[in-house]
Amino acid sequence: MKLSIDDSWKTILQLEFEKPYFQSLVEFVKQEYLTHSCYPKGGDIFNAFNHCTFNDVKVVIIGQDPYHGVGQANGLCFSVNEGVVHPPSLVNIFKELGEDLKVPYPKSGNLMPWADQGVFLLNATLTVRAHQAGSHQGKGWEQFTDAVISKISEHRKGVVFLLWGGFAKKKIKLIDRRKHHILQTGHPSPLSANRGYWFGNRHFSSTNSLLQQVGEKAIDWKIP
């Protein structure tokens, strides 16, 4: 696994890369990609970092695992490659976005335009074996991504953290609430959304209000 990650992140995470757990993780991922079909493709593993530099982070959305179906995952949480059918959680994200900001439902499920504006779309686990959800959990990715969240909390100010669902909410302990904004709601999956825990959260408009209060440019949430 080539560590193709933006220099801004390399600088802030250098000590993490040198720790024994990360070296073991790299070896594990290399072997998995050599012996199994895994997602996202190797060059996309750090897409969240490469499309949103450390100093550009304005919003953090935390997912759990990459999609494990063929051609879906592109290295950004909840996002899929161009032309891929939108998974149910993404459908509900776009429905809430439409209700909140009155934007049309997008054709593409690729969230790269969000990342390029400073929305850091981080999965807790950055890789997965094809058709085996959670197969790369417990191998070191969570320790790494927890460190990433902690570094953002420590070195940045005024970031809006969107914690969707129980798993993401557990990350609240890593965030300094005196320096940052935290918005919490249910997970956008049908199981949660159909029970009334997702729709109506208005996180997109609320995020923009919080950003504008500190003089930051609002996110254009529309997907072209």
Task: Characterize the structure shown.
By secondary structure, this protein is of the alpha/beta class. The chain is built from nine helices and six strands; from the N terminus they run H-H-E-H-E-H-H-E-E-H-E-H-E-H-H. The strands form two sheets. It has a four-stranded parallel beta sheet with strand order 3-2-5-6. Strands 1-4 form a two-stranded antiparallel ribbon. Strand 5 (160-164), helix 7 (166-169) and strand 6 (181-185) form a beta-alpha-beta unit. The protein is globular. The mean pLDDT is 96.
List the defining traits of the structure above.
224 residues; 4-stranded parallel beta sheet; two-stranded antiparallel sheet; 9 helices; 37% helix; globular
Shape: globular
Task: Tell me the series of helices and strands, N- to C-terminal.
Answer: HHEHEHHEEHEHEHH
Structural class: alpha/beta
E-strand count: 6
> Share of helix among residues?
25-40%
Beta-strand portion reads 5-15%
Q: What is the end-to-end distance? A: 32 Å
Radius of gyration: 17 Å
Low confidence ranges: none
Oligomer: single chain
Report the sheet with the most strands, covering strand number, pairing sense and barrel closure.
4 strands, parallel
Mean pLDDT: 96
Subcellular location: Cytoplasm
Organism: Winogradskyella pelagia
InterPro entries: UDG_fam1, Ura-DNA_Glyclase_AS, Uracil-DNA_glycosylase-like, Uracil-DNA_glycosylase-like_sf
Protein name: Uracil-DNA glycosylase
